[in-house]
């Protein structure tokens, strides 16, 4: 995976995958030529120096009736009836500007109506004398008219145009242009504004009162300044003076909308389609104008970008040190699903003496991978076994039958990328039922008066158990002198002789076991002769001095046996003969 070493400026994540490039411009102040807020103390001399760039070269008042003071409202001139008050800066601005933005706070108290009581001037060849400057030395100027009851107006001293009625304190922004072309600047509202060549704009607060007013002497330089208060009755206070070269106006390229995904198997995108950054620069009097982006420090923003929102700050700098900014935001989305090390369907036998299988180690754990960051990887079980989510299946007990294992991997995308993978775990029961008792072979005697033996109880039964708890069948089969089948030998009649007994126990999975033994039934009952002939004497009835029995007169009668019997006789004495009947 690509190693990513950039320090990204991540602002957030978007719900849809886009590479979004937006542009904006941030206002920056231009180069300051002069700045004074009259905060050093009450003595006007503290603000006068022949070469200090942030001090005036003269602050003057020519009569007792006109005073100059420094206080909470800045440098203040108060005129009762006569006198002239001035301040000037005749050390040249450096560098010499061709455009100027002159700002200050103005606070006026007017006691009488008077025209053109004071003038603000910018030009060249001025002096520190407490007198007005010639128009030929003046590049641009505007004046002040007093009205009674503390009201006043600004005057365009070239055309005679007047502003609207003003009173009290306000902020003045005076922009003049000697660049040879239209000049663009940020107005007090923060909007783009322009002033034509050799024209001036004057703003009171957020309102433009003079628009493209003609300057006094277009061939003059913008090097020095002067203020003159020499008419009317009232006071004029000036504070927070700021003279600067307005920052060049930067127009960023039009917005781009580019949609891209992460590179394959990466958590980033090597972007190659960003356009060259080429801002439109106006007022580039301070050359050269250069730019770079803060992402890779070059003029080309094509590079490797991480997933998420990255802000690129384009920094534009002119030769005077003025800085502007354009911002691009680049969003890369992770659209790749997590992947798995695949596990095929698995088959396991039940654990010994149980009807389940316990997973061992990580045998059923599906390892997941992601090109970015994997938040979770969990398993759910369905089928004969249910449960989850599990971070590992180690030790999880699987029931006999088929269990489906579904692993779900989720990454940290926005929205998250989710992938699933499933396989089956089949647990088979391969264990035979077990007989708890298998009777031993034995002998039995026939029941009284019978040639058989009847099992009086279930002592010859062979009970069985199974690891899955169920023996689906347990039957016997008799062979030998007795035949038959069934589920209990209680009451079964055994014939005389040897009977082979075979018990077979079978579980639902088809596993079976047998238990065999022999039962021998013996006839231990003697035949019974109920009538036995008595001893008799007979006369010879045939030749040879013999007696021949012809009627079975000497045979026993009333012979019985529980089984079968045979009857024989034997003669002892003078007639040694053996036969079945006499």
What is this entry, summarized?
This protein is an all-beta fold and 582 residues long. The chain contains no helices and 48 strands. A hairpin with a 3-residue loop joins strand 10 and strand 11 (151-155).
Number of discrete helical segments: 0
Q: Averaged pLDDT, please?
A: 89
Return residue spans where pLDDT drops below 50 for at least 5 consecutive residues: 1-29
Total number of strands = 48
Q: What's the shape?
A: rod-shaped
Give the biggest sheet.
14 strands, antiparallel
Derived structural class:
mainly beta
Distance linking N and C termini: 118 Å
Radius of gyration: 62 Å
Helical proportion?
A: under 10%
Instruction: Work out the strand percent.
Output: over 45%
Q: What can you see in these coordinates?
A:
The chain has 582 residues and is mainly β. It is built from no helices and 48 strands. The strands form 14 sheets. Strands 3, 4, 5, 6, 7, 8, 9, 10, 11, 12, 15, 16, 17 and 18 form a 14-stranded antiparallel beta sheet that branches. The radius of gyration is 62 Å and the shape is rod-shaped.
Write the layout of secondary structure elements.
Elements: E1 19-21, E2 25-26, E3 31-36, E4 58-61, E5 66-71, E6 74-79, E7 85-89, E8 99-110, E9 114-123, E10 138-147, E11 151-155, E12 166-177, E13 183-186, E14 192-195, E15 199-204, E16 207-214, E17 224-229, E18 234-245, E19 249-251, E20 256-258, E21 268-270, E22 280-282, E23 290-293, E24 304-306, E25 308-317, E26 323-332, E27 339-340, E28 346-349, E29 356-358, E30 368-369, E31 374-383, E32 387-390, E33 397-399, E34 401-411, E35 418-428, E36 434-435, E37 442-445, E38 452-454, E39 464-465, E40 473-480, E41 484-486, E42 493-495, E43 497-506, E44 512-522, E45 528-531, E46 557-560, E47 569-570, E48 578-579
